[in-house]
Structures are given as structure tokens and as C-alpha cells.
Amino acid sequence: MTTTVDKSSPLRKPQLVSTDQPPLKKQRTVSDLNQVDQLKQLTTVVADTGDVNAIKKFSPQDATTNPSLIYKAAVMPEYASIVDDAVAYGKGDLALTMDKLAVAFGTEISKIVPGYVSTEVDARLSFDTEGTINKARDLIKMYDEVGVSKDRILIKIAATWEGVQAAKQLEKEGITCNLTLIFSIAQAIACAEVGCTLISPFVGRIMDWHKKAKGVDGFAPAEDPGVMSVTAIYNYYKKYGYNTIVMGASFRNKEEILELAGCDRLTISPALLQELTNASSNVQQKLDASKAVNMDIPKIDMTESTFRWMMNEDAMATEKLAEGIRGFAADIVKLENIVKTKISAKF
């Protein structure tokens, strides 16, 4: 510390006056941040899980669930009370109990995340437009009963042609939708043209198909077919000014995630969020809306016949969409079996 003598008054004893400045607070740089925190500067990070405790850990903006994730959470001991409460609410009605269970998990999640919570419609309604619309209305009504505004909820629907038409009507009613199981640009364009709030194009499942088809162990991140699919969708949307949010989903490794930095949203499993948290290498923006505007991308007029033909010509998208619907339906049946046992014991 340096000092000066205060001579302002001859009657006062000299006083020591510090001229030192307080030490400046060190500013955090990008290199100080882990990869999740860096990613959050470029992309809205979403937790892909039904595990409420895992969501609390990573503080995402939004959260997504699906029947498989709800099933995994429902068999965990710490969530037994949620299942029991749903059984009591349903009073022996299996369908009502299942809906309440999905809403109950969504309600708990809504207390943690500030943004959207996605709740999925029964996958067995994937080819039933009216059935999907009615189920979505029922779910939103249940959320309203517990004080959760429909503005917080995304109704998750498989992106079949019938699912897209259901979303078209629901969006007109102010019920926001997340169209999922998207594996092709045809699905993405159809969703955007009817005004869907958000889509979930899958990455890892596309890579899985191409690994098997080509007999390879994997791909470099920039050459990953799943990454390339989401990139193409993102660029198409930004080129033509669609407001539908692109949320990359279904990741197999953190490199796929980092290769999509800059995407509107990315929904990430707790395991991969932890990997990103443990890493601190620099995260670079890969997707840029301002660059997409000037790209040479042909416009596609999406009609039902064009949609069905493009899906027919895309073996990967056709197979993965069907496989995804079957998988979600199978997990609904597993969950129903658990609920049936509890209903039988109670009623």
C-alpha cells in the first residue's frame, strides 16, 4: 500500500490515506466455462428426461419427456408417490390414470424449468388425427386443473402426416405442439407449413441406421448423417423464415451435440449433460441463421402426396419413424401393466 500525508489542516496529525484501488474481480472467460455453460451461450439447452432430480441438477431452460422416459422414471422408488396419486385420481380408469401420470410428471418438471415441458400423446394414436386432437385437449385440461398454463406445455406428437394435421388444428386453438420422431426434411417442412411451435429432429437414431447400412463403426462429427440432417433442416427453416423452433434430439455422443452448437434448442440426456459439464474445451458455433439466409436451397411445396412420396423414397426415415412409434407404444404398454397392477390392488 502506498500512502500520502493529509496536510489540509495544520492542527490535525498527519493521516495515512490509501491510494490503492481494490483488486479487480476476475472476469470469467470462455476457457473458464464448462461445455454446458458455453453451449448455453449459443443454444437453449433442454433436459431429455423424466427424472425430476436430474433436471434439478443441470438447470435447463426446458424439459422433454416421452413414454420411454416416463416408464423409466415411474419404476424408480423415489417417484412411487406420483404413480400412486395418479392411480387414486383415475379411480380404476386405466386411460385416465395414464394421462394423469404423464401430467403429474410434467407438473413436477414445470416447477423446476422456467420454459416448456413436453408431454407426449399416446403413440398408438399416431395415425389418428381426431384421436390425437382429443387426447391433447384432455392433457391440457388436466394441466389447467393443477394450475399449469397451456403456454408452458408442448404437446408431443409423432410427425406422421396425420400427426401434422392434428398439430395444425391444435395450434389454431392455442395449444402448442412439439412434433417428434423427425428423420426427414419432408416431415420438417410439413410441420413448419402448418405452424408447429417446435420440432424434434433426431440425430443418433439416424446415425444408428447408417452405421448398420454401411457397416461402419461411426462417423466424424461433421459427417454424421444425423448431424447433417438437422443442419439441413435448420438451414431450410432460416432460409425461408419459418418460426418453428428446431430442437435437435436423440444424441449418441457429445460430439454430435457440439457439432450442432447454434441450433435453436438441443435436448440432451443427463448422462451427456454430465459429460459436457466435465469438459471445458472451446465450443464453437456451427449453425448460423444469418448465413443460412444466403444459401442456395430449393423451396419444396409440401402436399400430402409429396410428403408420402418423399417418405417412401427415404428408407431410413420410413423405417425409423415406424420403429420409433412401435418403441414408444411398447413402453406405454409396459407402463400400463405396472399401473394395472396398482389399480387391481387398490380398487
Question: What does this entry look like structurally?
Answer:
This protein is an alpha/beta fold and 347 residues long. The chain has 15 helices and ten strands. It has an eight-stranded parallel beta barrel with strand order 3-4-5-6-7-8-9-10, surrounded by eight helices. It has a two-stranded antiparallel sheet with strand order 1-2. The chain is globular, with a radius of gyration of 25 Å. The protein starts with a strand and ends with a helix. The relative contact order is 0.14. The N terminus is likely disordered.
Provide a concise account of the structure shown.
The protein is built from 15 helices and 10 strands. The chain has helices at 35-40, 52-58, 67-74, 80-90, 94-110, 129-145, 161-172, 185-193, 204-214, 225-239, 254-258, 270-277, 289-292, 304-313, 315-346; strands at residues 3-5, 16-18, 44-48, 62-64, 117-120, 153-158, 177-182, 198-201, 245-248, 265-268.
